[in-house]
Known about the structure:
Structural class: alpha/beta
CATH architecture of the largest domain: 3-Layer(aba) Sandwich
Keywords: Coiled coil, Membrane, Metal-binding, Signal, Transmembrane, Transmembrane helix, Transport
Protein name: Periplasmic solute binding protein family protein
Distance between the termini: 104 Å
Number of helices: 9
CATH topology of the largest domain: Rossmann fold
Radius of gyration: 30 Å
Subcellular location: Cell envelope
Strand order of the largest sheet: 4-3-5-6
InterPro entries: Bact_metal-bind_prot9, ZnuA-like
Transmembrane segments: 258-280
Shape: elongated
Number of strands: 6
Amino acid sequence: MKYFVEEVGGNRVDAIALVQPGICPDHFDVRPSILSEINTSSLVIYHGIEPWLDSMINASENRGVKKLMLQGPWGTPPLAKAKINSIKDALIEIDPSNKSYYEKNAAEVTKELDALNEKLLKEAKEIGTSDYKAIVMAWQKPFSEWIGLQVVDAYQPPETLSVQTVQNLVIKGKEEKVAFVIDNLQSGTTLGAQMAEEIGGRHVVFSNFPEAIPGTETIAEMIQYNADQIFGAIKQSQNESKEIAALKSDIASLSNQLVIFQGLSAIFLIIAIALGAMLYKRNN
C-alpha cells in the first residue's frame, strides 16, 4: 500500500508503512508508535486483514482521519491498477487542489503497468505456461491464473491445514500430473517444498510484497520477479525434457546398432561354422 501511495502521491504525500515490508499484517506485533503515526495522518489505507487496526484508529486522538480499505489481491498489473485508481480518488478527495498532480502520477504508473502486462503475457504465451498444471498457495492464485497456469487446486496458509488436507492435495497433484507447487514467500515455503517433492513437481516461490526480496522495490518489479520465477522453472523443465528426449534417442540408436551388431555376429558365426565344417571335411 505504501508503494501505491508513494507512486500516486509523490512529493505531496508522506507515506508511512505501519507494517514493515515482507511481514504479514495479520501476524504483526503492534508497535506503540502506531498510535502517534495515526494521530498525524490524514488518510489510513489498509487491506482488511489487519485485526488490530480498527482498535488502534479508535484509540487514537485523530477523529477526522479518513479510512480507505482496499481488499483483494494486487499481484497482477490489472489488480494493481485498480488499487492505484482507488488511492488516486482518495487523495483527490482530501487534497482537491492537487487533483491534476495525482491524476498525472496515476496515469504514468498505469502506463507502466499496461506495458508490463502486455510484455509478460506475450512471453507467457511464447513459453507455453498454459500447458502446465499447478497447485498454488491461495494468495498467489490470481497471479498464477493471470500468467496462464492451469491451477488445479489452491491451499490456505500452512498452519490452517490438516494432515488429511495436505495428503489430498498430494494425491490430486499426482493424479493431475501437476508440474509446479507454488508457494507464497510470506506465508512459509516448507510445506510447498514437501508437497512438490512428493508429487514429483517443481517448487516455485512467489513474493506478495514489494521490498521483501532485493530488486523488488516496486509492484512492477515484484510482478516481474514472480514471472521470472515461473518462466525460469518452465525453461528448466523444457530443457530437461529435451535432454531426456535426446537421451532416449541415443539409447534407441544404440539399441538399433546392437541389433545390427548381433545380427552380423550371428551371420559371421554361421559363416565361420560353415567354413570350419568345410575345412574339416576337406582335411578328412
